[in-house]
Amino acid sequence: MTALHRFPVKSCSGEELDAAEVEPWGLAGDRHWMLVDPSGETVTARAHPRMLLMRPRLSGDGLVVSAPERADLDDLEVATPQGPLTDVTVFGRAPFAAALADDSAHAWFSDLLDTPVRLVHADDPRRRHANPAYAGPNVPMAFADGYPLNVGSLASLAELNRLIAEGPRAAEGGLEMVRFRPNLVVDGEAPWAEDGWRRIRVGEVVFRVVKGCDRCAVPATDHRTAERFKEPTATLARHRRWDGAVWFGVQLVPDSPATGAVLRVGDEVEVLEAEVAPDGPPR
């Protein structure tokens, strides 16, 4: 494994780590905070690309967020809330309860985005579950889109960049992996081999590979400027389009041990079960 990424606030900038503990709902501290609109629905960089410029980091008992684009704005310091709870949703799916941060956090983010938002915390990820059709029953979730972890392959990224370079928007190529916001980055396999993975071991942890990752507009957004482009969506649509979506990377559920083990950059990645990569969406 060549890199580990944690994203403390959903859709904001992430942290690159040397090591991270695995919990049943993903990497410790990953996507445990989220912005929601007044109705409780998630607010993401799909609609607000500038979220990618916000830089959150976990502190001892909470969160610190900076906004480099706003020199007039002090860093936000937020204590981990103990309540009250409010119902929230992620892309209109079943509502679940999350803890509200204090009013100063809501005001800080609302000022930055120029729209009313609230900051919430996944105080108990067991209240939300991944889709059992793919993940199996009762897989807990914090605020990731659909499944506990995501993995990206450098071999697949290199192939994608090669395809972009051959197309009409070659200048938009040379993409970095962070555009796809994976938790784990791996190397050494053939491009798209991960489509056929079913179980892998990374260090001490065995993961089930439960589904491919269908992609939204976020990978087409420059994480340094928040400018949105056509790539990689256009090239993925030519080469990796199935079921009305474009696909890059695969989703993981920790299998054993599901909690307490530590992943480290440099850990060996072993494919335990695989099929021939499908000519269609992964899983």
Automatic annotation (TrEMBL):
Coiled-coil regions listed in the entry: none
Organism superkingdom: Bacteria
Any one Pfam family match given in the protein's UniProt record, by short name: MOSC_N
Residue ranges of domain MOSC in the record: 117-272
Chain ranges passing through the membrane: none
InterPro entries xref list: MoCF_Sase_C, MOCOS_middle, Pyrv_Knase-like_insert_dom_sf
GO molecular function, one term: catalytic activity
Protein name: MOSC domain-containing protein
Organism: Nocardioides flavescens
Upper taxonomic lineage: Bacteria, Bacillati, Actinomycetota, Actinomycetes, Propionibacteriales
